[in-house]
Design a protein that fits this description.
The chain is of the alpha/beta class. Helices cover about 35% and strands about 25% of the residues.
């Protein structure tokens, strides 16, 4: 039995993030603290993203109230599957957080800003040692971004690779233009070129998923799913549909992420672990999952810090490589105290 405590947060970002979904200025969620009879404390974070398809902070908080002051790990089934962020937070708080004995440093992808500003950032990041770069596209008119694309590729270091993240902003025609151009450029993959939510209707959802499968089959540059993977059920559905592209996995959104990883590993899937822009508490759990991945290591999508206006809440400083000890050093209790 564990004593359950939680704190809700609303945190401004240090710099607003521009994506195809709009300008994102703050992060909302809950931190969880579980303490057992021996005094062992575990931490978790319900890093909700309602616009991405997760539960809301209100829903996660209501579920915590319903669980009461004391929580038995066997009661995880009482938390609805639709509250994937909360389920993952509870799972992480119950976990021992141990790293694999032979865990090695993992490369990190540098996050580039949208638009022309990206051209100014590539050089310094390359000098710092980064070789994989993620560029947010679908933010400005496609013609303007395509005009910048070659300039950006020309500034990549030797051996550098670019990930294009459209956040589902493109229609078929725009996606085809980009994929034709990307085929001859150092592009590792194109992330979520098109997207439809379940709330848009079953017909549009099915047609969009069929479009993604068709684009993946028609062009040599791999595609990656991100917004299409809100939780465990989505991962399972895409595996059943035979997706052979990349799965961008945000562990903070995945419910019981260990089971999801086991299924992906059994399918020999290509997986990239990515931040959901959580605090250091959620980042520690997500990065621990990444170091436990048994498949081919790919550059982590965790080059996001410094992220918050209050730097005490950030995860490990962004660097070209992340070591297991960098994750182990994260002090969850200090983050908890910073929110008091």
């Amino acid at each position: 039995m564990h004593r359950l405590q939680y704190r809700r947060y609303r945190l401004p970002f240090r710099v607003p993030l521009r994506t195809a979904h709009g300008v994102w200025t703050e992060r909302e969620g809950l931190l969880l603290r579980l303490e057992d009879e021996t005094g062992r404390v575990g931490w978790g974070e319900a890093a909700v993203l309602p616009w991405f398809g997760t539960e809301t902070a209100d829903e996660a908080e209501a579920a915590c109230r319903a669980l009461g002051e004391y929580f038995d790990g066997a009661e995880l089934g009482r938390v609805p599957a639709g509250l994937g962020c909360l389920r993952q937070a509870l799972t992480a708080a119950l976990d021992d957080g141990a790293m694999p004995a032979a865990a090695k440093p993992l490369p990190v992808a540098a996050l580039l800003p949208a638009g022309r500003t990206a051209l100014l950032r590539v050089g310094p990041l390359a000098e710092a040692g980064y070789r994989v770069f993620k560029w947010k596209v679908g933010v400005e008119p496609a013609g303007d971004e395509l005009a910048l694309f070659d300039d950006l590729c020309a500034r990549l270091p030797d051996g550098g690779r670019l990930r294009l993240d459209a956040n589902g902003a493109w229609d078929r025609r725009t996606a085809e233009k980009w994929l034709e151009r990307a085929a001859e450029r150092p592009v590792e993959f194109v992330e979520q070129p098109c997207f439809a939510k379940a709330s848009h209707g079953a017909d549009l959802l099915r047609r969009t998923e069929d479009l993604l499968l068709g684009l993946a089959a028609d062009y040599p540059t791999p595609l990656a799913l991100d917004e299409s993977l809100v939780g465990e059920a989505d991962v399972g559905r895409w595996l059943e549909r035979g997706w052979r592209g990349v799965f961008v996995l945000k562990p903070s959104l995945c419910g019981e992420v260990g089971a999801t990883m086991a299924r992906l590993a059994a399918a020999k899937a290509m997986v990239v672990f990515s931040s959901a822009l959580e605090t250091a508490v959620g980042a520690k759990a997500a990065l621990t999952a990444a170091f436990r991945w048994p498949g081919e290591p790919r550059a982590l999508g965790f080059g996001v810090w410094p992220l918050f206006a209050d730097g005490r809440l950030d995860g490990p400083p962004a660097a070209p490589f992340l070591r297991p000890e960098d994750v182990q050093r994260i002090n969850a209790e200090a983050v908890w105290s910073a929110l008091s």
